[in-house]
């Protein structure tokens, strides 16, 4: 699991209106790709996570296909989603 400040900030605060670039593993380039696909905020990406039932393989595949993110980046984002889900749902 990622121990970055970005990860800690994300998983320990309510989602509210966080941007897609607030997601661990998602920087400006991948955030722009998500935005062009209609994902304007982190909550919408979390909706995909929930729609997939939190399935690790499916969610990471979705991120990789949507953004081109590598395995470390998709893992970081998945782990943040999983932990946020556990903390707030």
Automatic annotation (TrEMBL):
PANTHER family: BARRIER TO AUTOINTEGRATION FACTOR 2 (PTHR47507), BARRIER-TO-AUTOINTEGRATION FACTOR (PTHR47507:SF6). GO terms for biological process: chromosome organization. It is found in: Nucleus. InterPro entries: BAF, BAF_prot, BAF_sf. Keywords: Nucleus. One of its GO terms (molecular function) is DNA binding. Gene3D superfamilies: Barrier-to-autointegration factor, BAF. This is Barrier to autointegration factor. One of its GO terms (cellular component) is nucleus. It comes from the Eukaryota. Its main location: nucleus. The lineage of its organism: Eukaryota, Metazoa, Ecdysozoa, Arthropoda, Hexapoda. Pfam families: SAM_BAF (PF02961).
């Amino acid at each position: 699991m990622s121990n970055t400040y970005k990860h800690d900030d994300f998983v320990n605060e309510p989602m509210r209106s966080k941007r897609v670039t607030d997601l661990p593993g998602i920087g400006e380039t991948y955030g722009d790709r998500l935005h062009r696909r209609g994902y304007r905020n982190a909550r919408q990406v979390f909706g995909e996570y929930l729609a997939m039932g939190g399935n690790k393989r499916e969610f990471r595949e979705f991120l990789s296909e949507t953004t081109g993110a590598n395995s470390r980046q998709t893992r970081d984002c998945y782990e943040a989603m999983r932990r946020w889900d556990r903390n707030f749902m």
